[in-house]
Inverse folding.
């Protein structure tokens, strides 16, 4: 009985040792797993190229408002009065390289201004409601329209004016006698049709 | 003798009981270890992405340009304590001045996929040099390997309305976008 008891105690002690050893192994195993887990936290990545392109371009259009001017007076003895119209708006969109500019120019492409008169044109600064960017600066004084392009707006960069009917650069045409002291006798009654062409130039880096 | 006889009976009985024990079947055991490692794989379909800003109407701002050709494919085995997420950042190149490049993921395609494919974030991210989350809560899953399998990515390039439009210049450039599948632990 004593021997049996001693054997039982010995077995228990061995089991206890085995349990302790198992615990140690378990700790080592968990530790290894944690180490492995840290390795698994590495991120995986994949890449792709995206090409972005903005080409230089410019677009110009008017609101196609009819412009009609008449020279007349209602006072006997008076010279015919100059007449103006500001219905026309010019809309543009422009993208251009850094450090370059565009201009809006105007000329008469068809017909001619009647003798004894002149037709001038001046641009207002661009409307601001629907526009953004470098919209340039209008020439300070009206140009006298001719068959040769003259600058109306200079220093235009990347911009857009808006597309509404009254968005853009408001143009004011003024028609009147030209040096009436000497040329008034050249004015004749008639109806004259002219075509005025607006151009937005290539950027001055070209 | 009577006492000795009793002991003998007990001893014989014990032996018989032991014999009964020996009649039990012998069983041999062996451990079978099954192991699935946690892993994550990610790849794109390498679709070329080309975006152009322009307009065809005078007075109009350049129109945003979008491209949805790129698909991101993943395979993921995760554990109970972990989910994964897909992030994106610009690793090379810059988005041109005056513009923004946004990116949004659609939910994974379902034709060839399975598992917990996660949820794309609701609003597009504005790409920058820092990782931002595109898809969250990805578990164990696969997306399929076809060219149009996985998460369809929509790139949108547009003028940055918070800055002056004049910052936009004629340019041709390239940016590299890196997609990362990373782990989120819950403990």
């Amino acid at each position: 009985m004593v021997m049996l008891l001693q054997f039982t105690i010995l077995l228990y002690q061995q089991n206890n040792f085995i349990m302790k050893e198992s615990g140690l192994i378990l700790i080592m195993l968990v530790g290894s797993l944690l180490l492995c887990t840290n390795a698994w936290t590495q991120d995986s990545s994949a890449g792709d190229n995206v090409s972005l392109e903005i080409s230089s371009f410019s677009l110009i259009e008017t609101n196609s408002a009819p412009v009609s001017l008449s020279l007349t007076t209602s006072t006997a003895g008076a010279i015919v009065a100059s007449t103006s119209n500001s219905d026309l708006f010019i809309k543009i969109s422009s993208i251009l390289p850094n450090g370059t500019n565009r201009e809006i120019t105007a000329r008469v492409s068809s017909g001619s201004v009647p003798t004894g008169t002149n037709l001038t044109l001046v641009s207002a600064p661009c409307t601001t409601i629907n526009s953004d960017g470098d919209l340039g600066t209008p020439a300070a004084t009206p140009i006298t329209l001719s068959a040769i392009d003259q600058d109306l707006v200079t220093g235009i960069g990347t911009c857009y004016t808006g597309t509404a009917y009254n968005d853009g650069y408001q143009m004011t045409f003024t028609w009147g006698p030209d040096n009436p002291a000497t040329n008034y006798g050249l004015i004749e009654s008639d109806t004259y049709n002219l075509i005025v062409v607006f151009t937005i130039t290539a950027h001055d880096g070209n | 003798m009577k006492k000795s006889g009793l002991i003998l009976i007990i001893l014989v009985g014990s032996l018989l009981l032991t014999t009964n024990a020996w009649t039990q079947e012998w069983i041999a055991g062996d451990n079978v270890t099954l192991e699935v490692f946690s892993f994550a794989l990610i790849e794109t379909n390498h679709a070329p992405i080309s975006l152009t800003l322009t307009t065809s109407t005078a007075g109009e701002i350049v129109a945003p340009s979008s491209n949805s050709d790129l698909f991101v494919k993943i395979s993921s085995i995760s554990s109970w304590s972990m989910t994964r997420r897909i992030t994106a950042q610009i690793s090379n190149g810059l988005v041109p001045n005056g513009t923004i490049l946004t990116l949004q993921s659609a939910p994974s395609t379902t034709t060839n996929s399975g598992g917990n494919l996660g949820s794309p974030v609701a609003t597009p991210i504005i790409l920058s040099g820092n990782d931002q989350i595109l898809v969250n809560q990805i578990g164990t899953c696969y997306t399929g390997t076809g060219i149009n399998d996985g998460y369809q990515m929509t790139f949108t390039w547009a003028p940055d309305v918070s800055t002056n439009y004049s910052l936009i210049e004629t340019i041709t450039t390239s940016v590299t976008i890196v997609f990362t599948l990373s782990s989120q632990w819950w403990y």
In short: Chain B touches chain A through 56 residues (CB under 8 Å). Chain B has a mean pLDDT of 89.
